[in-house]
Amino acid sequence: MQNKLDDVRISIDEEIGRTYERYKDSKNDWIENGYREITKNIWNKTNYFIKKLLIPIVIFRQEKTKNPEILPCSDGSIDLLWNDGDFELLINISQENNKVQISGESYKFPEEDIEGTFNYNLAITVCIEWLKKIL
Predict the structure, then answer these.
(1) What is the pLDDT of residues 78-98, one digit of tens each?
(2) Range of the domain at 116
(3) 82, 88 contact by CB (below 8 A)
(4) Number of structural domains, the chain?
(5) Residues in the chain with pLDDT values less than 70
(6) What pTM was computed for the model?
């Protein structure tokens, strides 16, 4: 199990790194077009959020799950989009007021869909509990 968890951590770091490098390469274009800069703090919070969310899923499912798509947004936030066959989960990590927006759809249990805005730390717990409920 430890190897799976280490693989998850490494793959998240690599994916964040690739996405950050693509963003950094086009950052001047973003700013010239009036888009808000994504701070290093938001990248770090995103990395932490993904790890805190994925590791319990791997432990719960006893298998590796795919990483989310990491999508920089023009308002300086970052979207995380998971679509793994059982669910679709969209998470927006904002620079504003430490808030996270969550929209989750369960394909097996539509009555368990979730949507709301939460404090950053609470959002991690909300997502984990929602995923444990629907998986």
Answers:
(1) 999 998 888 999 999 998 889
(2) 2-134
(3) yes
(4) 1
(5) 1, 62-64
(6) 0.88
